[in-house]
User: Which sequence fits this backbone?
C-alpha cells in the first residue's frame, strides 16, 4: 500500500547563500510512503497524513537548514520511524531557487 502527501506548501528558513539568510522561502513537499502489507480497517492501521505534515512542519520550525537535501533526508528518516512504513520518498521543490525555472530541488528515497 502507498500513502502520500502531495503539494504541502511550507515557508522555511533554508539556503546557503547570503540572500537566503534571515528570510523564509516557499517549499513544496511531496511524500510517498510504502507501507508493509496488512489489513487496513481503522486509522491506526495506516499512516495518518497529518503526522507526515506535522513532521515536515516541525523540521522547518526547528530553525534554518542550509540544504534542501538535508531537510528531505531528515523528513524521510522521520517517516521511516512511523509504524508500517518500509520506504519513504521525499521530494522538495524550491520554486524561487533558480531564475527561469519552475523549481529546483531534490528527491530522497530511503528504505528499511
Assistant:
Amino acid at each position: 500500500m502507498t500513502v502520500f502527501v502531495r503539494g504541502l506548501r511550507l515557508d522555511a528558513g533554508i539556503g546557503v547563500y547570503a540572500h537566503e539568510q534571515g528570510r523564509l522561502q516557499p517549499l513544496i513537499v511531496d511524500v510517498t510512503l510504502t507501507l508493509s502489507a496488512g489489513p487496513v480497517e481503522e486509522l491506526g492501521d495506516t499512516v495518518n497524513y497529518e503526522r507526515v505534515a506535522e513532521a515536515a512542519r516541525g523540521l522547518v520550525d526547528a530553525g534554518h537548514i542550509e540544504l534542501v537535501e538535508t531537510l528531505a533526508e531528515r523528513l524521510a528518516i522521520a517517516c521511516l520511524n512511523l509504524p508500517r512504513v518500509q520506504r519513504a520518498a521525499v521530494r522538495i521543490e524550491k520554486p524561487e531557487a533558480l531564475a527561469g525555472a519552475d523549481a529546483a530541488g531534490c528527491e530522497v528515497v530511503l528504505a528499511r
